[in-house]
């Protein structure tokens, strides 16, 4: 039995579908699990409340662990959670972390994920860490203004980063959860090339076959928009990566291609495949 947390989100939901199609026995954990593939056991639990997590792990040998929301800053206890996981008889854990947990381990935006990484790697479970960079799907935040007025408004218009297509994260997670050879590895998951917000707007324009205007926001304007849907320290940390990336954060990683045996998908491919959300 594989337990998937974050099971209704950007990474977890397609991961459930991929593994269900392979015939895996699955439990889907979220606070409000709904709309799951046939045959998947839904389990309502809050990862910040270990009493609700314990029964979700009954019969599990493998855990895909994804933290979201307040768990990224101030809720939950990483070591206590991993004790519950090990006591339940789980033998393998795959943690969906973030590139920032390696590149900015002390930043308030990423220190918590670093603590989860440390808790996982201190166990004697078979563990693997997945550290994605920024998701291509963050562009869905632009969908309303692209639909309404063919406009992308974003900060740091010319800073290019190798954003990753979440379907590749899902594909790597599925491989790591079901194939041997990934124990003790930490994979950095990026796209195949660095692409700036202005270039992302141009890729959306190409996909739409119509011009899309780009307007650069200042940091305060961008932060005001981001804190509507993420904790303030996570917004701050994300803006620091978007505006002042380290050399490591700009670098393309070979890990998706190494695990999947095919190149990582590009932002332009993602835009073409998901253009309907922007029409
Ligand atoms: N977006 C990026 O650019 C980026 C880059 C690098 C790393 N990441 C990492 O990716 C992760 C987010 O993944 P995602 O985009 O797939 O998430 P998402 O789409 O925001 O979905 C979050 C999932 O977690 C569940 N959840 C939230 N709080 C919970 C709690 N307290 N207890 C149990 N379940 C909870 C949600 O369901 P309920 O609401 O029903 O509980 C949902 O299933 C984060 O760890 C983030 O650091 C993101």
Descriptors:
9 strands, binds NADP nicotinamide-adenine-dinucleotide phosphate, 279 residues, alpha/beta, single chain, NAD(P)-bd_dom_sf, Ergot_Alk_Oxidoreductase, NAD(P)H-binding protein, 7-stranded parallel sheet, Rossmann fold, two-stranded parallel ribbon, 16% strand, NAD(P)-bd_dom, 13 helices
Task: Give a written overview of the molecule.
The chain has helices spanning 12-21, 50-53, 78-87, 99-103, 111-122, 143-149, 166-178, 197-208, 219-226, 232-243, 247-250, 255-260, 267-273, and strands spanning 2-5, 26-30, 41-44, 62-66, 92-96, 126-132, 151-155, 185-189, 213-217. It has a domain at 2-132 and 165-189 and 253-260: NAD(P)-binding Rossmann-like Domain (Rossmann fold). Helix 1 packs across helix 7, helix 8 (197-208) runs parallel beside helix 13 and helix 9 (219-226) packs across helix 10. The protein is of the alpha/beta class and 279 residues long. The strands form two sheets. It has a seven-stranded parallel beta sheet, sandwiched between helices. A two-stranded parallel sheet has the order 7-9. The protein starts with a strand and ends in a 6-residue tail after the last helix. It contains 13 helices and nine strands. The structure holds NADP nicotinamide-adenine-dinucleotide phosphate. NADP nicotinamide-adenine-dinucleotide phosphate binds at residues 5-12, 30-32, 45-48, 66-69, 71-72, 96, 98, 113, 132, 134-135, 138. NADP nicotinamide-adenine-dinucleotide phosphate (NAP) binds next to loops. It comes from Cryptosporangium minutisporangium. This is NAD(P)H-binding protein. Residues 6-179 form the NAD(P)-binding domain. InterPro entries: Ergot_Alk_Oxidoreductase (IPR051604), NAD(P)-bd_dom (IPR016040), NAD(P)-bd_dom_sf (IPR036291).
């Amino acid at each position: 039995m594989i337990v998937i947390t974050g099971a209704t989100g950007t990474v977890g939901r397609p991961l459930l579908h991929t593994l269900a199609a392979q015939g895996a026995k699955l439990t889907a954990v979220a606070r409000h699990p709904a709309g799951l593939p046939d045959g998947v056991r839904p389990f309502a639990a809050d990862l910040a409340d270990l009493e609700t997590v314990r029964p979700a792990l009954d019969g599990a040998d493998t855990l895909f662990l994804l933290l979201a929301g307040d768990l990224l800053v101030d809720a939950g206890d990483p070591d206590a959670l991993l004790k519950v996981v090990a006591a339940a008889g789980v033998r393998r854990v795959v943690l969906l972390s973030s590139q920032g947990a390696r590149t900015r381990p002390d930043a308030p935006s990423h220190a918590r994920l670093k603590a989860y990484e440390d808790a996982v790697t201190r166990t004697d479970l078979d563990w693997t860490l997945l550290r994605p960079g920024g998701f291509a799907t963050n562009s869905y935040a632009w969908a309303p203004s692209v639909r309404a007025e063919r406009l992308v408004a974003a900060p740091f218009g010319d800073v290019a980063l190798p954003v990753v297509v979440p379907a590749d994260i899902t594909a790597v997670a599925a491989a790591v959860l079901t194939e041997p050879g990934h124990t003790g590895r930490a994979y950095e998951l990026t796209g195949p090339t660095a692409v700036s917000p202005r270039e992302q707007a141009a890729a959306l324009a190409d996909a739409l076959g119509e011009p899309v205007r780009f307007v650069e926001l200042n940091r305060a304007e961008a932060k005001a928009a981001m804190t509507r849907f993420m904790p303030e320290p996570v917004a701050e940390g994300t803006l620091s990566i978007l505006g002042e990336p380290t050399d490591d954060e700009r670098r393309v990683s070979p890990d998706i291609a190494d695990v999947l045996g095919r190149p990582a998908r590009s932002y332009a491919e993602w835009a073409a495949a998901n253009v309907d959300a922007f029409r």
